[in-house]
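Final report, Chapter 2: Outcomes

The project's central promise was a pipeline that accepts a single protein chain and returns its three-dimensional structure in a standardized token representation, suitable for archiving and comparison. That pipeline is now operational. To close this chapter, we reproduce one record exactly as it appears in the project archive, with the input sequence first and the structure output second.
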Amino acid sequence: MRIIAFIEDPDIIKKILKHLDLWDVKARPPPKNSSENLEPFTDYSQSQILPSEDYLYCNVEYAEAG
């Protein structure tokens, strides 16, 4: 495919688009917001921190030095 011409005249562009029924294309309305009545929800029942026993470890020597 290659370019064979550029159409720059606004009247000609309008005439072509009207012929193709593309001149008076109406924009559709934005979608309805289905979540406008929903409250934010946070589930605290499960932690996102991976289970680990390292948090139970306490270095006694470090605690005594401070």
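Archive annotation: Helices lie at 10-19, 60-65.
This record, like all others produced under the grant, will remain available to the consortium after the project formally closes.
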